[in-house]
């Protein structure tokens, strides 16, 4: 039996239909976003908004992979389709991680070395980082294809090295990037809190004996750092939701190691658990841009601009 062809029960058909609806919805979101990014040359803007928008686009791009997942769950797929799903899923996930890492690095440089920040983060450097976020995952494609033999997952699952595949997937999607982003995020939180107090004290001290409204200047300082805290909090939400979405991979991997898939019933059970994990990951991909839009004004403005341009045509 083809491991990609699983029973077409009513439950599977409902999941397949919901996945197709989700994919169609995300196609409607991704196309105008991509067009405006290309037409408006947003990546040449020297500020952290660029990395936020790239992270949003990568999450929307990741949502598109679940059309293939829905077909695989329904049993209508091929060997090439199964491989395409695995590669696109890992590609979009790693691009999202790298975009989040660039965002954290950008904020770290901005608050740690504010005078050198404009020198380092030039439009050329920003373009190179964004290109790297989309290009470097190609290395993962080569490792997956020729080192761990990931093709056997879609060809002959009994011959596949499930243990290596599971460990490799968990480490590349969460095990390696999660500690890096968390450590950098903790450093940013510490510096932002310290610098917020320093700026507040300096502004109040500089107003002594002047005719300026000290209270108003203090409120401006608080709003500035409140925006930094919003961005940091949003990053924590993204990290948490992404980590939760990867947990089903760990469960599936442990079951594969404990119970080699030598029987059809075990294979069907593992396939069902894997599909549940992928649906959770699809929800993560879909909801995270909405979280960004709700919490960060620049993302909300970005979506508003897209909507206005579409309506005006």
Automatic annotation (TrEMBL):
PROSITE patterns, sorted: G_PROTEIN_RECEP_F1_2
Signal sequence bounds: none
Domain G-protein coupled receptors family 1 profile: from-to ranges: 28-292
Subcellular location: Cell membrane
UniProt-listed SUPFAM superfamilies: Family A G protein-coupled receptor-like
Keyword Membrane: yes
Membrane topology qualifier: Multi-pass membrane protein
GO terms assigned for molecular function: G protein-coupled receptor activity
One GO location term (cellular component): plasma membrane
Name of the protein in question: G-protein coupled receptors family 1 profile domain-containing protein
TM regions (residue ranges): 50-68, 88-105, 117-136, 165-186, 232-252, 272-292
Entries under InterPro entries matching the protein: GPCR_Rhodpsn, GPCR_Rhodpsn_7TM, TAAR
Upper classification of the organism: Eukaryota, Metazoa, Spiralia, Lophotrochozoa, Annelida
Main location: membrane
Domain of life: Eukaryota
Keyword field: Cell membrane, G-protein coupled receptor, Membrane, Receptor, Transducer, Transmembrane, Transmembrane helix
């Amino acid at each position: 039996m083809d491991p990609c062809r699983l029973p077409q029960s009513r439950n599977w058909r409902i999941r397949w239909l919901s996945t197709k609806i989700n994919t169609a919805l995300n196609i409607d979101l991704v196309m105008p976003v991509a067009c405006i990014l290309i037409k408006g040359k947003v990546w040449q803007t020297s500020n952290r908004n660029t990395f936020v928008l790239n992270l949003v686009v990568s999450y929307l791009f990741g949502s598109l992979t679940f059309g293939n997942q829905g077909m695989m769950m329904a049993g209508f797929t091929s060997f090439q389709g199964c491989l395409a799903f695995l590669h696109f899923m890992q590609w979009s996930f790693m691009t999202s991680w790298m975009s989040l890492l660039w965002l954290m690095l950008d904020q770290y440089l901005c608050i740690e070395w504010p005078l050198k920040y404009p020198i380092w983060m030039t439009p050329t450097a920003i373009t190179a980082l964004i290109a790297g976020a989309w290009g470097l995952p190609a290395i993962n494609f080569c490792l997956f294809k020729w080192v761990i033999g990931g093709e056997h997952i879609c060809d002959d699952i009994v011959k596949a090295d499930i243990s290596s595949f599971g460990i490799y997937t968990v480490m590349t999607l969460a095990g390696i990037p999660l500690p890096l982003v968390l450590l950098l995020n903790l450093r940013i939180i510490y510096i932002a809190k310290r610098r917020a107090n320093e700026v507040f004290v300096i502004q109040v001290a500089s107003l002594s004996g002047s005719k300026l409204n000290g209270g108003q200047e203090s409120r401006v300082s608080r709003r500035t750092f409140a925006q930094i805290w919003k961005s940091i909090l949003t990053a924590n939400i993204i990290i948490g939701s992404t980590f939760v979405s990867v947990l089903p991979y760990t469960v599936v991997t442990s079951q594969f190691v404990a119970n080699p898939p030598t029987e059809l019933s075990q294979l069907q059970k593992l396939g069902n658990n894997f599909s549940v994990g992928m649906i959770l990951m699809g929800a993560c991909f879909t909801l995270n841009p909405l979280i960004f839009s709700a919490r960060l004004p620049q993302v909300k403005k970005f979506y508003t601009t897209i909507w206005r341009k579409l309506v005006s045509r």
